[in-house]
Amino acid sequence: MATMPLKExxxxxxxxxxxNTVDLLLPGNDLVKRLPLTPDALTRESVxxxxxxxxxxxxxxxQTSEALLFDAGLSRKGLVHNMDVLxxxxxxxHTIVLSHGHADHTQGLMGLVERLGERKMPVxxxxxxxxxxxxxxxxxxxxxxxxxxxxxxxxxxxxxxEERGPSYLLGGVVLVTGQIHRTxxxxxxxxxxxxxxxDQWQQDPYIHDDQAIVVHVRGKGLVILTGCGHAGAINTIxxxxxLTGVQRVYAVIGGFHLSGTLFEPIIPxxxxxxxxxxxxxxxxxxxxxxxxxxxxxRALPHAFVQNSVGTRFVLSAAN
Length: 319
Hints:
The chain has helices spanning 78-85, 103-106, 109-116, 150-155, 233-244, 267-277, 290-299, and strands spanning 8-9, 11-18, 32-33, 54-61, 64-70, 93-97, 121-125, 133-136, 142-145, 158-162, 167-169, 174-176, 193-197, 200-203, 213-217, 221-226, 249-255, 281-285, 312-316. By secondary structure, the protein is an alpha/beta fold.
């Protein structure tokens, strides 16, 4: 029996507001709407890419459409700049969901609060997203991963809602997975990842705050949107199936975190599992990595789509 039954929707649109790449020449189709190649496409203000991720998720049921922001990118200006170019208004947002606390998914909030003005905005996240983190490489050098600034953002009108488990948004048509169960034998975490707990740096390989968004399109199946996919793309998909009781996967979009020598060995089992699921659409983004993206493209040529900032995925019961 499903733990979190999910209402079906008529359509979900996912607009990539930030990702690692921009390509104005990519082709589109009925599901994938690219930025139009207007006569001034190369001279007018353009969207920008950065090492980060953010997406606008708009869900439609009947005559009602509501939107949320999933992640906020890395830089203070990148998100709001692309929102302006793509004509996305801050007032359209009902809430914000953070996939996890890493800076490349959260720091854009600082620019967004300026655009929101005095408007209060709820932000849903796992409590571990506030941990100070870092990556420690074998040669000893480190990369700091600062969390969202709780104090400053709260002062600017952000209302943090901390949830470890799954929760509904937008009247029960969007499911946030919460902490994801680890069930595969190959998605074993990030051993170089550390968190500051009780004033001590400790290994934090599982990054428990990693979570995804799930929508059920009527007659088509689950649409699953990840940020980095630190829990593992397949763990995330299986968790969504277990929570909702829906086995059919319509689309998987977002970061799969398969980049680098630590993660490249799990590319083959990840691709094999995706092949077994046979989704209609697979869009590996952000931190998936060049080798994994090409492996997915080869294995699922009819489902694979290359992402780019400004791409809108229109996933409808009518398609």
